[in-house]
Every structure is written in structure tokens, then in C-alpha cells.
């Protein structure tokens, strides 16, 4: 994001959407963050989570560091993270390369290695998975501290919810990647404003769906727009028609079925 900066973010998956919780921004080109920053972000989010909550962290390939896995284990979190095909592991005392497993595989294949270890520093025991979901182009290699291979794969599929958020913040929404800002601290503050705006726009999209305004803002029988895109069109409709704009950063209460009252005819 911005000019010469990258962001590391953590979200919570709620009703099919990834909602931002916390992030770190640093200067640098696109690529993996140091493991120390992964751990710092986990510790930051840990303070926001109720102690009794059950947490499963879903991470891409850079989140397989053994110190990060141990941090999540110590925190009491479960995790399912992608790892590289070149990783060397050990199972029942026999070392092997992950990419040597499943060369014969086809979509729908799942090979699990319980009580395995990552032999670069003999970290374990953990669950290693070679998984080829039917909708993927090839094998996924996963590490987890869960007991069930099927449950780990089911949960990992939710990780891709975050990609929609990134596209909403960038090419299909706020275009944060085109910001000329170079200072990572300023970009972090900009991201805070963009995330608040994201919550608001999504709530407008929910309002559009709840109150049946779809026919007003798009002319198709079947709506293929996300809540974010519906919210943007809803805001545009309110502005064009000079209508009061409801302001909320959350979805309406299920008990009341009402959105917060609007105190002024316009909000800028």
C-alpha cells in the first residue's frame, strides 16, 4: 500500500466476510514479514480477544515459522497455516520432503501426518497435511495443531475471505495502493480511516439488502454485487437523491431490526 510500503493484517471472519482487527505497516517491497512482526501482531490481537474465546488462526505461507507456532500454542490458540512444498518434515522417525508426497494426487486427495515434526529444528508434534481441494489448481501443504485433518482443511478454506477485503481496499474500492504517501506511520493512520469507512459501507450494503433497495441501485433480477459494492452504490444513491444518510459502523440489531437513528439530513 502507498508508495514503497506493505501491511500485515489480521481479520476476524464473520458471516462470510473478513473484518479487520489490527495491522502493522512497514517500509519495504512486497514480500514476507519477519517472524518477529508476526508474533507482535498476534500479541497485539491477543489483548482484544476475550480469554474464554476459541480462536483458530488461519495463515498463508509466511505464517509457518516455528516460533510463531509456539507463540500461538502458548496463547491457547489453534492454527492452520500454509507451508512450503520444499519443507523437510519427519514422521515416525523418517524424514521426507513435502513435495515428494502426493505427486500422484488428484483433486479431492487428503494425506495427513499426525504427530509429525518440522525437521529444520525438530519442532513438533504437529499435524502436517497435503491437501488438494477440488476447486484448487494443485496441492496445499498445511501445518496445524488441530487433531482433525478434515476440520483443519474446512477451516483453512475461510482464509480466502481476506482477499475480498484487500480488493475492496485497493482496486475495487479505496485504491490505497495508489496513495502517494511514503511514511509507514501515516499509512497506518490512513488504513485506520479506510477500515472504519469499510465497516460503514458494508453496513449500508446490509441496509440495502434488508430493506429491499436492490432494484433501485442495480437493474438485474439477480444481484451479483458484494455488500461492499452494494454499500457504495447505496451511498451514491443517497447523495444523488439528497436523502438522509444513515451512519453506523455495525449491522442493525437483530432484536430491534432497526438501524441507528439519523440525527442530521446529511453527513460528510
In words, what does this structure look like?
- The protein has 268 residues and is α+β, with helices and mostly antiparallel strands.
- It folds into 2 domains: 5-166, Transposase Inhibitor Protein From Tn5, Chain A, domain 1 (Alpha-Beta Complex), CATH 3.90.350; 183-268, no CATH class.
- The protein is 31% helix and 23% strand.
- The strands form 2 sheets. A 7-stranded mixed sheet has the order 3-4-9-8-7-5-6, with helices on both faces. Strands 1-2 form a two-stranded antiparallel ribbon.
- The protein is globular, with a radius of gyration of 22 Å.
- The model is unreliable at 254-268 (pLDDT under 50).
| Mean pLDDT figure | 84
Helix content: 25-40%
CATH superfamily of the largest domain: Transposase Inhibitor Protein From Tn5, Chain A, domain 1
Widest beta sheet: strand line-up: 3-4-9-8-7-5-6
- CATH topology grouping of the largest domain: Transposase Inhibitor Protein From Tn5, Chain A, domain 1
Give the biggest sheet.
Answer: 7 strands, mixed
CATH architecture of the largest domain: Alpha-Beta Complex
Identify the overall geometry: globular
CATH class of the largest domain: Alpha Beta
- Indicate the low-confidence ranges by residue numbers: 254-268
* Spatial extent as radius of gyration: 22 Å
Number of helices: 7
Number of domains: 2
Amino acid at each position: 500500500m502507498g508508495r514503497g510500503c506493505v501491511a500485515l493484517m489480521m481479520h476476524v471472519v464473520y458471516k462470510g466476510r473478513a473484518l479487520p482487527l489490527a495491522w502493522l505497516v512497514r517500509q519495504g517491497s512486497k514480500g514476507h514479514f519477519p517472524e518477529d512482526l508476526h508474533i507482535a501482531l498476534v500479541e497485539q490481537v491477543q489483548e482484544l480477544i476475550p480469554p474464554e474465546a476459541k480462536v483458530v488462526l488461519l495463515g498463508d505461507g509466511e505464517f509457518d515459522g516455528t516460533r510463531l507456532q509456539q507463540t500461538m500454542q502458548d496463547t491457547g490458540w489453534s492454527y492452520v497455516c500454509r507451508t512450503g512444498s520444499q519443507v523437510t518434515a519427519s514422521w515416525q522417525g523418517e524424514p521426507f520432503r513435502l513435495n515428494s508426497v502426493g505427486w500422484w494426487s488428484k483433486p479431492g486427495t487428503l494425506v495427513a501426518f499426525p504427530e509429525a515434526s518440522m525437521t529444520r529444528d525438530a519442532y513438533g508434534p504437529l499435524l502436517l497435511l497435503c491437501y488438494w481441494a477440488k476447486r484448487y489448481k494443485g496441492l496445499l501443504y498445511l501445518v496445524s495443531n488441530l487433531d482433525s485433518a478434515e476440520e483443519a482443511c474446512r477451516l483453512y478454506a475461510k482464509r480466502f475471505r481476506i482477499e475480498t477485503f484487500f480488493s475492496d481496499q485497493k482496486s475495487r474500492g479505496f485504491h490505497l495502493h495508489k496513495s502517494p504517501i511514503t511514511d509507514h506511520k501515516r499509512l497506518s493512520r490512513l488504513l485506520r480511516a479506510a477500515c472504519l469507512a469499510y465497516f460503514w459501507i458494508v453496513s449500508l450494503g446490509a441496509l440495502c439488502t434488508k430493506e429491499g433497495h436492490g432494484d433501485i441501485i442495480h437493474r438485474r433480477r439477480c444481484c451479483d454485487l458484494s455488500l461492499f459494492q452494494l454499500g457504495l452504490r447505496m451511498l451514491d444513491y443517497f447523495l444523488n437523491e439528497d436523502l438522509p444518510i444513515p451512519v453506523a459502523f455495525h449491522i442493525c440489531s437483530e432484536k430491534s431490526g432497526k438501524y441507528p437513528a439519523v440525527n442530521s439530513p446529511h453527513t460528510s
